[in-house]
Amino acid sequence: MKKNSLIYWYPKVKNTRVPTPETEIVILKNQHSELMPICDGDFSPIQDQWEEILTSARKIGFPLFMRTDEFSGKHQWKKTCFVQKEEDLKEHIKNLLEDSFMADLMGLPIRALVFRKYIPMQNLFKAFYGEMPVNPEIRFFIRDGEILCWHWYWVEEAIERGSPKNLLPFNWKDIINNAKRDYLSGNDLMWLENDVRKIAKEFDGFWSVDFCLSAKREWIMIDMAVGERSWHPEDCKLNQKVLSNQSPTPHTLASPTFPTEKAINISLKESSSEDSQISSNDETSLNNNIIQLN
Question: The whole model's pTM is what?
Answer without folding.
Answer: 0.83
